Amino acid sequence: MKRAIVTVIGKDRVGIIYNVSKYLSEANINIMDISQTIQQDFFIMMMFVDLAAMTESFNEVSEKLKNLGDEMGLQIKIQREEIFNSMHRV
User: Fold this and answer.
1) What is the pTM assigned to this prediction?
2) Which of 8, 10, 64, 79 has the greatest number of CB atoms lying within 10 Å of its CB?
3) Pairwise CA distance, residues 5 & 51, whole Å
4) DSSP string of 31-90?
């Protein structure tokens, strides 16, 4: 299974979860787990996703999520699970 972590950070507003999950659904990326919180006025979300059936390349998905974030005033990033784990190993 190919998996990745999607992170979303920015000022809270209506439609963040909807717009991110809508794009992931259109790219046939399955959301396996999701965690989100709001601290003061900031929205923070982390999604664990399955890329096995995605219909676009990883680079296309990364670019489209970045563009979606730019449109919404958010920072949206995707990292492959193995890279995320390597970066956060203590």
Assistant:
1) 0.87
2) 8
3) 10
4) EEEEEEEEETTEEEEEEEEE-TT-SS-HHHHHHHHHHHHHHHTEEEEEEEHHHHHHHT--
Tens digit of each residue's pLDDT, the chain (90 residues): 699 999 999 999 999 999 999 999 999 999 999 999 999 999 999 999 999 999 999 999 999 999 999 999 999 999 987 665 566 665
Amino acid occupying residue 56:
E
> Distance between the two ends of the chain, CA-based, in angstroms?
24
Do 12 and 43 contact (CB within 8 A), yes or no? yes
